Amino acid sequence: MKFFDPALLKKWTDGFWTKPPNNEIKNFCFDTRKLGKNECFLAIKSDHNDGHNYVKIAESSSAIAAIVEHKISGISLPQLVVKNTLEAFQKIAKNYRKTLNT
């Protein structure tokens, strides 16, 4: 199984970690009800909702980290702060595809 190195995620997204996660990231999820162990929560904004409102729930679930557009205070969850969460995730996907031997 492929894991995502926090240092590579920082490089690929031009973001910064509030503190790096203790382990590599297994997967990504934008729904706190479906978060799995060692998954990174994506705080995605839409016209109808803002994922940043759920970062604290992600922390109390099994998230290992979150990708956010602004630091959420009052939590210890590692946060990768980026300009735009959706665009950052697209950059991660693009760079991840480059690592595949297909």
Descriptive report:
This protein has 102 residues and is α/β, with parallel strands linked by helices. The protein contains three helices and five strands, in the order αβββαββα. β3 (39-42), α2 and β4 form a beta-alpha-beta unit. The longest helix has 15 residues, at 85-99. It is globular.
Question: What key attributes describe this structure?
Answer:
about 20% strand; 3 helices; about 30% helix; five-stranded mixed beta sheet; alpha/beta; about 100 residues; globular
- What is the beta-strand fraction? 15-25%
Q: Could you give the distance between the termini? A: 16 Å
Number of strands: 5
- Given the helix and strand composition, which structural class is it? alpha/beta
Lateral strand order in the biggest sheet: 1-5-4-3-2
Helix content: 25-40%
* Mean pLDDT across every amino acid position: 93
Calculate Rg over CA atoms: 13 Å
**DSSP helical segment count:** 3
Give the biggest sheet.
5 strands, mixed
Low-confidence stretches: none
Chain-wise SSE layout:
Elements: H1 6-13, E1 16-17, E2 27-29, E3 39-42, H2 55-60, E4 63-68, E5 79-81, H3 85-99
Parallel strand pairs: 2-3, 3-4, 4-5
Antiparallel strand pairs: 1-5
